[in-house]
Amino acid sequence: MTVDGRLARGERTRTAVLDAAVSLATTSGLDGLSLGHLADSLGVSKSGLFAHWRSKEALQLATIDRAVTQWQERIVAPALRAPRGVRRIRALHEARIDFYAARVLPGGCFFATTEFEFNARPGAVRDRLTEVFAAWTTFLERLVREAVDLGELRSDVDAALLAYEIDACGIAAAMRSRLLDPETTYRHARLGVLSRLRALCPDLTLLPEGPS
Length: 212
Description:
Strand content: under 5%
Radius of gyration: 19 Å
Mean pLDDT: 91
Low-confidence stretches: none
Shape: elongated
Helix content: over 70%
């Protein structure tokens, strides 16, 4: 029981550190992460953190994976409770905008920030981010194809293009809400995707006329 208790405490500490790292990365970038900074902010020893991550790159990679878990828990999982088809696509985008609007992360969006930070910098961190972005794109495209197969989107819809448009609205919302009026930005992001889906959906009773 003592060993199990130590393991549980260690895992809680690790999760708390990575949550802090995700938040910090949205304002300082992944390059701004340091064990010293994280230790100070959490009131723990730097040596204790070093036992988990032996290098800055290892910490960066673990932070990316934690951000993916947050994204799945806060955005993907709620959306998957919606019916398959256009309602699930809209639910996914709404959950994403809700996540931004709740100001969960001080810099808005971990992935929007790190994409710009590492898009021209080769290495293991960029490779991992590339995998994450590719998986997200594939997931969006799969949801669009499901909606097409169900007859809830027109048969001639380009799944890759629509997925790109939906993601672009999300990225724009994340970035512009930090500089412009956030309420207007989020409303435009919601309405942009909703209008696009309504234009492609044969059954408009599946979608509301305006953003929620």
